[in-house]
Amino acid sequence: MDRIGILQLNDYCLDNILQFLDIKEQICFAQTCSRFRDVFFVWSRRENTKVSILGDVEPLELTFLSLITKSVRELKLFVDDLVDSIIIYDSYTKNNQVVVKFCNLVRSMNSLECIKIWQVTPHPITKLLLRALRDLPNLKQLHICTPKRVNFGKFHRLELISIDVEMPPRALLRYCRSLTKLRTLHLSDQVSSSNLRDIVEHLPALQELSFYIDRSTRSRIPACHKKQMNSLIMVLDFLASKRTLNVLRIKGHIIAQDEAESLTKIQSLQSLDCSFAYPELVKYLSLLTSLQILRITYLHPIDISSIYLDVIRQCKDLLFLRLYDFNINPDFLGRASKVLKDIESKNKLQLLIYGRHNSLTLREFRSKALDTNNLLFRSISATELLKIL
């Protein structure tokens, strides 16, 4: 029987061989000849679209990254780990050369669509990285968490930005003015939302918004609190007038009737996550009849199960309902199922309930859910719980 050399194997066989090689062998494979390099490139476009630089970063990993730069579509980068791994020389010049080399590597990632950057200890490499990312043609998503303010105003192609950086209102407004293609804006509690009304005015394509209500004040004068409340009403009223927002997540309590009324004017909403300080404000949600996904946080001791049922009754397109409420008992499932039956809902409602429930109560919840065919009960997951906190 004739022997077949590796060079005689077709591309399919070579592709399969790559699956069983370690990173060092894969690097050698890619550097063997132009044909192997082409096979490696096709393979990497399928297997290496997502890359994470976390923990100890070995030199081999960076070499491998240099070979797959055109394949990377999503990059997760913990800057502190990268710095600890590559800034290893006593010479400033050598360390700077390494930093520049890595930034040039990132600059060549023309397929990159999403990058997530975390940083705890300040280091100038972050500023250089952002410069390298600025002109990438396909970059649409930027998630950034750093201890120092960064300038993202020149990322004109962005469609999503998540900002977890301490930033004053004026700087945020200045940077966001140029992000006219932005569809999704997520702001952490580090970012002041006091002038959010002015910011969203410059984002004509905005469809998803997440922010913390800014009620902070350095003065004890009641008028300051009123001003903060009015700023929330102003942004909600503006979003209602634009009629483009589909997803809204508000962290912090809705505390006044005017705020609840302004919220319900956003009739374009399909997904909402919010919390209420008082039970009488929750009823306004029944006016948002286009909702498909609803997450409610309510920590008042008064039972408002009947209000939740009315929301289900009015929001006929509802597919998902998460309730963070300590007052709900297992009988609620049967009542909710009856409402769904009465309105002849064509959807099976997925219901998540979080409260002070022991194992016996949870079993009762699940038992009640088994008696229905239009409702799916799930106890809340850790991932979902993190969205609440």
UniProtKB/TrEMBL annotation:
Domain F-box: 6-39
Cross-referenced Pfam families: F-box
InterPro entries for the chain: F-box-like_dom_sf (IPR036047), F-box_dom (IPR001810), LRR_dom_sf (IPR032675)
The protein's name in its UniProt record: Uncharacterized protein LOC108041232 isoform X1
